[in-house]
Amino acid sequence: MFSQDVYDTMGKETCECITKKKIDFSTISKNELQLQVGLCMIQSYSEHISEFSEGEKISLDDEAAMERLGEKVALKMLDSCPEIILEMGKASTRTDQEQATEKSNLFVEGQITAISKEQFLTIQLKDKNGRSYSFLVLDYFDTASLLTDNELKVKNEVKIGYSEIELLDVKANEFRYFKIINNIEKQ
Asked: What is d(CA 148, CA 126) in angstroms, rounded to the nearest whole number?
């Protein structure tokens, strides 16, 4: 069997597996959905591994190879169960929007302990409980003039609105969440 035919079979089997699970796409989280689809794909891959040439076989701990496999199988799923792919897309988009809304309504009040100006402006803040925070300024926001006009100083009391986004930390060589300022008010 040619590997292209294997992907057709895997697409059909993954569709059948997901259908059998009776997933409620209106309530499932993005992560849980990815997990369930991934498990169905791995199950199908395991059943058909002998149909792949040695050069096409992948290790289940090779994330990049698993992602490529997932993309190929998902394309074949479009032929077998386009409604499931559509529902997966809706669930994924809905979850991303909900998470973005949650992460953009965050704020903290405290005293500025440091302002550093390197490639990006970073503000260090300590709240009333003594907890320290680090914020980046990456985008324009309505009260950004407090920063550009140098109106904020160390020891100023402020309320910072922020969102969290995942960025590559080059020094640590890993992705991590950073707090990005979207509003700042002098208290």
From this structure: 22
Cβ contact 23:36 at 8 Å? yes
pTM for this entry: 0.50
Separation between Cα atoms, residue 33 and residue 17, nearest integer Å: 13
| Helix (H/G/I), strand (E/B), else coil: 147 | helix
DSSP 65-120: HHHHHHHHHHHHHHHH-HHHHHHHHHHHHHHHHHHHHHHHSEEEEEEEEEEEESSS
Degrees, nearest 5: CA angle 145-140-92: 150
46-91 tens-digit pLDDT: 999 999 888 888 888 888 888 888 899 999 999 999 988 888 787 7
Angstrom distance (rounded) from CA 142 to CA 1:
61
Of 63, 62, 86, 64, the closest CA to residue 74 belongs to: 86
Q: Give the CA distances from residue 177 to residues 35, 68, 91, 153, in Å, rounded to whole numbers and listed in that order.
A: 22, 26, 23, 26
Dist CA 150 CA 144 (whole Å): 10
- Among the listed residues 48, 38, 93, the one whose alpha carbon sits nearest the alpha carbon of residue 70: 38
